[in-house]
Amino acid sequence: MFRLFRSKPEPNVLLDAPNIGEDRRVYAIGDIHGRLDLLTRLVDKIADDDLARGPGGTTELVMLGDFVDRGPESAGVLDFVMRLRDWWPAITCLQGNHEEVFLMAARGDESALRFMTRIGGRETMLSYGATEADLDEMTLGQLRDWLMSTVPEAHLTFIEGMADRVLIGDYLFVHAGIRPRVPMDEQEGRDLRWIRDEFLSFESPHPHYVVHGHSITAGVEQKGNRMGIDTGAYATGVLTAVGLQGTEQWFLSTSNYED
């Protein structure tokens, strides 16, 4: 929809060396998609890396969204992340597009449920105890009722409370990206969770250096204005995190091939 009135765009300033801050250390994790096995190993690696690097002020963890769908343990991923907050309180979870659809479906939206079944939601429902036969035999209405009665309210409340974005130092963390040249206070949550080509093809500076998931690449994709860390965990078996402190960047990952 065209906007008749738009506030003055934020200035685009490319930061040659974006700085997260010297008194904080931040780790961001890409799209998990039900791979609880990879997530638990990656969190262990992050904890070990944080300890090895020594005191660095506050250590924060940012999860870029898409916890559910496609992989085998979506329910387990949500349980784990909710428990993780108890011993790693400085954690921010962003809502991905898959959480948006899952939440709508679990609240009774049949259109969202139909769409969910086409984007990996079958695996999510299996993780909540459905069988293959259940999913093949139930009507859409029956499936809706089953989902509404099965998914714990705590999971839905957790998803509802997820953030759309978080700004730390010179870095902006979002699930999918931002709409280029649109001020942050005018960015819509749907864009932050769903945008793709318009964001990925934009090569000019953004006001902040953007760290995102959503769009799968074979490895970390580093550009002058953004960094993509969705390495397709559900399909490739590789889950990736970036570590940030001051102007330093480093990467950690886990894969199917580790012991």
TrEMBL record:
GO CC annotation: cytoplasm
Cross-referenced SUPFAM superfamilies: Metallo-dependent phosphatases (SSF56300)
Entries under CDD domains matching the protein: MPP_PPP_family
Coiled coil: none
Pfam family membership, one: Metallophos
GO molecular function: bis(5'-nucleosyl)-tetraphosphatase (symmetrical) activity; phosphatase activity
InterPro entries: Ap4A_hydrolase, Calcineurin-like_PHP, Metallo-depent_PP-like
Example GO biological process: RNA decapping
Domain of life: Bacteria
Span of domain Calcineurin-like phosphoesterase: 25-217
PANTHER family in the cross-refs: METALLOPHOSPHOESTERASE, ZINC-DEPENDENT ENDOPOLYPHOSPHATASE
UniProt-recorded name of the protein: Serine/threonine protein phosphatase
Annotated organism of origin: Sphingobium nicotianae
